[in-house]
Design a protein that fits this description.
Elements (H helix, E strand, L loop, with lengths): L1 H12 L5 H13 L5 H13 L6 H30 L10 H42 L1
């Protein structure tokens, strides 16, 4: 019987046993309490069958209601914030003097960047001109 149980245990660990074979293994360890790790494991599985858990359905229902309420609340808050700010333009300037000043600053910034790019272009032109002169001398 020992070699048959060993074969069944090996099949069990490989995930190849049927429910009937698993019942045979569990009943064997229940009736023959050996002091090995497999015996302790199967006794543990048997003891866990009798464990009763608290009302998990009640907890799940409460969790579902709380989740639904939170989702609806977040949706309402988001909708209020979005629609409240929808009519406002964040870049609108009501005062014409401030608008003119902001426009000048923006154009000056663009102008300085263009000048810097133009300076780099002039340097490249000088390099290309020197390169052409060297090629003509060769």
């Amino acid at each position: 019987m020992g070699s048959q149980i060993d074969k069944l245990i090996e099949k069990y660990w490989n995930g190849e046993t049927s429910l009937e074979e698993e019942r045979v293994i569990k009943s064997h360890f229940k009736s023959n309490p050996a002091l090995n790790s497999e015996s302790h494991y199967f006794r543990y599985l048997t003891s866990q069958k009798s464990v009763k858990y608290k009302n998990s359905k009640v907890v799940n229902k409460k969790r579902a209601w709380v989740s639904a309420a939170a989702t609806i609340t977040i949706g309402i808050i988001t909708a209020v914030l979005v629609f409240n700010d929808a009519g406002k333009d964040p870049f609108a300037i009501d005062d014409p003097e401030k608008a003119l000043k902001a426009t000048r600053e923006a154009l000056m910034m663009i102008s300085s960047e263009l000048k810097e790019g133009q300076n780099h272009t002039l340097e490249l032109t000088k390099i290309n001109k020197a390169k052409e002169e060297l090629q003509e001398e060769s």
